Amino acid sequence: MKVSVDRSLCYGSAECAHRAPAVFAFEDGYGVVRPGGAGSGDEPEVREAAEKCPSQAITLTDGAE
Ligand code: SF4
Fold it and tell me: Which parts of this chain are annotated as the region Disordered (predicted)?
């Protein structure tokens, strides 16, 4: 599963960066996927971060890039 953050939806709660700090960072007021983290959508903490993002800005998608 691929991970992405839609910056137009993110309102900067930083929860993703706290839940899965290996994959998400908090930069310039937004949650971002760290370089190399885009393929980490199968990790339980990444799934949880996506489910609990208050603005539903984190998307997990199937498929190869
Ligand atoms: S949890 Fe959601 S709203 Fe909060 S910083 Fe991460 S992507 Fe943005």
Answer: 35-65
Question: The tokens of 31 are what?
Answer: 């949650």
Domains of the chain: which residue ranges? 2-61
CB distance 4 to ligand 1 below 6 Å:
no
Neighbours of 56 (CB within 10 A): 12
CATH number given to 2-61: 3.30.70.20
Which three-class secondary structure state does DSSP give residue 32?
strand
**Largest interatomic CA distance in the chain:** 29
- Residues for the chain: how many in total? 65
Tokens of 32: 């971002």
Integer Cα distance of 53 and 30 in angstroms: 12
5-20 pLDDT, tens digit per residue, is 999 999 999 999 999 9
